[in-house]
Each structure stands twice: as C-alpha cells, then as structure tokens.
C-alpha cells in the first residue's frame, strides 16, 4: 500500500509541482489549500506536509489541532529562518520543520525519517512494571487505575526505557532511537521530554537519572537522587 501524504499549501502551483514529484516517487498525494480543508482531510493521510502560511487559519493552530486529535506525523514548512520559527513548530506538535526554500531530496529524506520513527513498535507485547502498564498497540499508558496521556515521543521514550528495564540508556542512544536523526536533536530536548514524562507519570522514581550517562527505568516506589555513572 502506498504511503498517503497530504500536502497543505495555498500556492496551488507549488503544491501541484510537489504533488507530482511525490507521486513519481511512489506516494499517494492529496492536496489542501486552506487550513479548514486540511482539518477535514488529514485523517486520511499517513503524513501531513503543512505550509504554515495559510490564508484562513494560522498554520501553527492547524498543526496543534492535528496533533491534539491524532498521531498522524506532521512536517511543517516555514519561510522564517530563525530558531524561534522552528521552536514554535515543534511546540505546536510538528515532528519536523523545514525552512523554505528547501530541496526536494531533503524533504523526502525527512519524510522517511519521520515515518520510521513514528511507526508503531514492532512488538505488540504489553509491558508491565509494577503499577506501570504500557500497551504499544493502542499506545496507551496506565499507572495503576489512572490513564496517562503522552505525546508520541514521550510514549516512544518511555517504551524504549521499559523495554530495557535493567539498562542505562545514554542520551545519544535515546536521540538516535526515539528521534532517529540525532544530529538535529540536542540532549536538552531529551531532558525536557524526560521532565515532562516524570510529571505525567506522577510521584515515584519511574525514570532515574544516571549522571554522565543517561536514564533508566525505575520502580515507581519513591523518588531517587540521581545515580553516579562513574568515570
């Protein structure tokens, strides 16, 4: 089955050109010229390429609404060439952000990377560690009787740690396995996601910091001081 891509771009000529190139690369392509059109058609896509310069709805708001309603990955296209432009896209829920003008080969490479890292885990085994239960098929997490809502990357990060319960996973490995392209992610991004995860999982040592190395899954029993990773 072909990967379905929704291209959201108010520039009909540019959108048609991109759609043609993607189709020749083996993708099934849909087009939307407005934010409202995107919000009524994104659910049929496997990936959304979203130009933020929309005429009716703020592109960041469209991105946030897609992210709030489902797990379809989004790559944003922005004319702003500043760190803030990229940060705002990522905060709105984008999986990646490209600065215009961009190269077609780079876009396709990023699409493939995003699709790889957002694919469902190959195993469907439910992981249980004490009160923590992780269901990869439904991408659901529970702590005791409480359901925990996580973003895609928070889920992937937690699932990776839970898959290796006795292992300290380095920040570099987390960047490579959860974000797939570690060169574009900083260790601070990992730390921020871990902090958010801890807050959502609630009291306990569900994620333990090992100084100088990375993180490991804890027991949830009680908060622990960071461990020393040694020399």
UniProtKB/TrEMBL annotation:
Query: Which Pfam families has this protein been placed in?
Result: Response_reg, Trans_reg_C
Specify the DNA-binding region ranges.
124-219
* Post-translational modification 4-aspartylphosphate, affected residues: 51
Entry's Gene Ontology cellular component terms:
cytosol; protein-DNA complex
- What are the entry keywords? DNA-binding, Phosphoprotein, Transcription, Transcription regulation
| InterPro entries associated with the record | CheY-like_superfamily, OmpR/PhoB-type_DNA-bd, Sig_transdc_resp-reg_C-effctor, Sig_transdc_resp-reg_receiver, WalR-like, WH-like_DNA-bd_sf
Q: Name one GO molecular function term.
A: transcription cis-regulatory region binding
SUPFAM superfamilies assigned to the protein according to its UniProt record, in alphabetical order:
C-terminal effector domain of the bipartite response regulators, CheY-like
- Ranges for domain Response regulatory come to 4-115
Task: Quote the CDD domains the UniProt record gives.
Answer: trans_reg_C
Gene Ontology BP terms: regulation of DNA-templated transcription
Report whether Transcription regulation shows up as a keyword of the record: yes
Name of the protein described by the UniProt record: Sensory transduction protein RegX3
Q: Which residues form the OmpR/PhoB-type domain?
A: 124-219
